[in-house]
Amino acid sequence: MKTISKQILLAVLALAVLAVAAYGFLAPRDKEVATFVMQAAPAPRLLAVNGRIRPRLQVDIRPALGGELVALPFDVGGRVAAGQVLARIDDAPETAAIAEAEASVQAQEAPLAQARKWCCKRI
């Protein structure tokens, strides 16, 4: 009987361990739930519309001389103050024409000076 009572005792003990383990796995637990607190606050007003924005004042700029645009320091629609340079056009062709005209004038001054010398000596 000792063997049978030991077997029964071991079986009861095994059942007790299994019952405790099952309770640990299957017992209801408190679940973590994300919460947040509501507070009264002013709602920002956002207006979303479709359309085009037009300026109150628009000015078309047309230079007297054409050329290659080398500087444009402002974006289209940007604000500018009176007297600010809006764009810079390459002036190399005009500078070359001025230098050529000055050289031509200097070339004509030499014969004129000789003619004045000759004319004044004869009188």
Automatic annotation (TrEMBL):
<protein>
    <submittedName>
        <fullName>Biotin/lipoyl-binding protein</fullName>
    </submittedName>
</protein>
